[in-house]
């Protein structure tokens, strides 16, 4: 690496990588999060020493002491983004600097050390370069990158740990919706909330997901696909799904999403869609939407479309909303035209099939 104080990665190629034949077989239908590449990134941190020993090495189990702090007090944060193989065979990543910035914000909230943004982006670049043959070819496929960091110090006292491990693993992902985008039914949880003011709702930490699983199980029990959370204070305003932000499209072409007041995860897909929607003639508004308003506007037909968004599925149409008092349908239950158009526009930019006026795409080699 050029550029002063950036750490140099030590590259230790996997001595026993998966064979080309076996890899091709795994890439036929990788699904999501089941297949992993040959390598991983590790960077260590210790108080007084800073970040040290950055490596690209064979993906392998991480030895862990049973008293490692993360196992007891959940000091853990993560990110998720994708690398794509474009039509001309080159490789891109979508907005890795935005993930780096969010990783720093999450680290601050969890009293963890901040990994410099350049080191974060460089770690992704290095992993994608060495594992480039694992990026699937074909529409809607990608290499999902999972950076994460946890408290590795061996200590049971309750305080911020003084040792951490940062890792990146990569997982080839097939088309999220094999056979076309499938609208989902969401469950409005009467019992559970996701995030309270002053809590960790805006941080991407494993603990938020742990706390959402009972609510997600309740949604499945109720015959739904995903849970949607209301605010923790008034139990009135729609916040987001367990791992996706939510948008409302009205018949006057207004696009509405709840504002980032600290209890909602600031999605990078959300941010990109706000920009794309504004550029394609939608009026874009960040404001609270109450559950009562949601139901009334769906029933009157004023609310035309609802969708959820995030890196994994990009955009998922919401067709139906179920709650303890009954259910209602959005726009006849079919994916709406703004939902489909925004999805196509965003995917085209991500895959290098459309111009990139915002400078969102990072090219790799
Ligand atoms: C990651 C995440 C999102 C989506 O963020 P993207 O950057 O768009 O992938 C939304 N909500 C929650 C709770 C998340 O963890």
TrEMBL record:
SUPFAM superfamilies: D-aminoacid aminotransferase-like PLP-dependent enzymes. The modification N6-(pyridoxal phosphate)lysine is found at residue 204. Keywords: Amino-acid biosynthesis, Aminotransferase, Branched-chain amino acid biosynthesis, Pyridoxal phosphate, Transferase. GO terms for biological process: isoleucine biosynthetic process; L-leucine biosynthetic process; L-valine biosynthetic process. It holds the Pfam family Aminotran_4. Pathway: Amino-acid biosynthesis; L-valine biosynthesis; L-valine from pyruvate: step 4/4; Amino-acid biosynthesis; L-isoleucine biosynthesis; L-isoleucine from 2-oxobutanoate: step 4/4; Amino-acid biosynthesis; L-leucine biosynthesis; L-leucine from 3-methyl-2-oxobutanoate: step 4/4. GO terms for molecular function: L-isoleucine-2-oxoglutarate transaminase activity; L-leucine-2-oxoglutarate transaminase activity; L-valine-2-oxoglutarate transaminase activity. Gene3D superfamilies: 3.30.470.10, D-amino Acid Aminotransferase, subunit A, domain 2. It catalyses: L-leucine + 2-oxoglutarate = 4-methyl-2-oxopentanoate + L-glutamate; L-valine + 2-oxoglutarate = 3-methyl-2-oxobutanoate + L-glutamate; L-isoleucine + 2-oxoglutarate = (S)-3-methyl-2-oxopentanoate + L-glutamate. PANTHER family: BRANCHED-CHAIN-AMINO-ACID AMINOTRANSFERASE, SUBGROUP IIII AMINOTRANSFERASE. NCBIfam families: ilvE_II (TIGR01123), PRK13357.1 (NF009897). This is Branched-chain-amino-acid aminotransferase. It comes from Micromonospora matsumotoense.
């Amino acid at each position: 690496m050029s550029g002063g104080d950036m750490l140099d990665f030590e590259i230790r190629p996997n001595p026993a990588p998966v064979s080309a034949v076996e890899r091709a077989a795994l890439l036929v239908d990788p699904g999501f999060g089941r297949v992993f590449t040959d390598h991983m990134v590790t960077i260590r941190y210790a108080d007084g020493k800073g970040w040290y020993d950055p490596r690209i090495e064979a993906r392998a189990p991480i030895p862990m002491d049973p008293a490692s702090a993360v196992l007891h007090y959940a000091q853990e944060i993560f990110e998720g983004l994708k690398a794509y193989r474009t039509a001309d065979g080159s490789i891109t990543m979508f907005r890795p600097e935005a993930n780096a910035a969010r990783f720093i914000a999450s680290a601050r909230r969890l009293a963890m050390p901040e990994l410099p943004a350049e080191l974060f982006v460089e770690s992704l670049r290095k992993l994608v370069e060495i594992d480039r043959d694992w990026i699937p070819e074909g529409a809607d496929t990608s290499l999902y990158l999972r950076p994460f960091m946890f408290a590795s110090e061996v200590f049971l006292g309750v305080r911020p740990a003084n040792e951490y491990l940062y890792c990146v693993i990569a997982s080839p992902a097939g088309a999220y919706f094999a056979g076309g985008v499938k609208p989902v039914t969401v469950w409005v949880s009467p019992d559970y909330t996701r995030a309270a003011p002053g809590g960790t709702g805006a941080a991407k930490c494993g603990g938020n997901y742990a706390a959402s699983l009972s609510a997600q199980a309740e949604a499945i029990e109720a015959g739904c696909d995903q849970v949607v959370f209301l605010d923790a204070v008034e139990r009135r305003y729609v916040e987001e799904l367990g791992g996706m932000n939510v948008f409302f499209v009205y018949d006057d072409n207004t696009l509405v999403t709840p504002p980032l007041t600290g209890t909602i995860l600031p999605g990078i897909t959300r941010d990109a869609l706000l920009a794309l929607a504004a550029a394609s003639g939608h009026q874009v508004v960040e404001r609270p939407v109450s559950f009562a308003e949601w139901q009334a506007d769906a029933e009157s037909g004023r609310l035309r479309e609802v969708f959820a968004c995030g890196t994994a599925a990009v955009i998922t149409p919401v067709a139906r909303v179920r709650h303890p008092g009954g259910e209602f349908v959005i726009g006849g239950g079919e994916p709406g035209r703004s939902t489909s158009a925004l999805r196509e526009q965003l995917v085209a930019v991500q895959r290098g099939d459309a111009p990139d006026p915002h400078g969102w795409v990072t090219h790799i080699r």
